[in-house]
Amino acid sequence: MSDNRGLAVVTGGARGIGEAIVDELVAAGYRVAVVDVNAKALAKTAEREAFRAGLVIPVELSITDRTAVERELGALAASHGAIQALVNNAGMTLPATFLDQTDEDWNRIIAVNLTGTFIMAQVAARQMVEQRSGVIVNISSVSAHGVRTGPAAYAAAKAGVEGLSRLMAVQLGPFGVRVNTVVVGTTATPWLLSRKSDEELETMRSTTLTGSIGEPADIAKTVAFLCSPSAKHITGQMVSVSGGQWMP
């Protein structure tokens, strides 16, 4: 394990890609706060060896609740020091075409994917600006670029995350805070594999230049690199981890 790099926060960290990101950041030397709204999934975090070693901290939290975010991130800083890295991975979507998208679903998807990212980033960035260092990685999707079909709200939210990330990089750079975006393609999460047939998965493979579907570890290793000292001169960038589904 690398030298202690301080505290990292990963939203949506109890499952899928988020869980893989937590593993990579722990291996890199971070103590990681695992933020998730799913209490059942979060409870499994407390069963892990890293929890027993004091390297992961489960935090049940809705990222759309600013008051709760300010309270919990403040408590984490008081107990473990200011946040050194934030990964905004939490997200959700609902099945619908553009013509069928309801206002209710639009608002819910935008709230989690875009507003929640904004709230978490702003609260964490205030700590980072004070200490004049930090890194934020926001997770986007190839859906923002029209690569695959899906709800209009999800595509709009992820496009918003990318624009927000660029603005953050410009405004936070003078304070020593780096901001980058990882654009995720089709990834073999447990959620995806449980819902798609072999035929559907094969169709998804055919949309990549590599002829393969990504693994959560592919995303996690990229995020860990961007959070590392090796990436100290990288900010304001969008990194596509999609097998070539989308190329910047």
TrEMBL record:
<dbReference type="InterPro" id="IPR036291">
    <property type="entry name" value="NAD(P)-bd_dom_sf"/>
</dbReference>
<dbReference type="InterPro" id="IPR002347">
    <property type="entry name" value="SDR_fam"/>
</dbReference>
<protein>
    <submittedName>
        <fullName>SDR family oxidoreductase</fullName>
    </submittedName>
</protein>
<comment type="similarity">
    <text>Belongs to the short-chain dehydrogenases/reductases (SDR) family.</text>
</comment>
<keyword id="KW-0560">Oxidoreductase</keyword>
<dbReference type="Pfam" id="PF13561">
    <property type="entry name" value="adh_short_C2"/>
</dbReference>
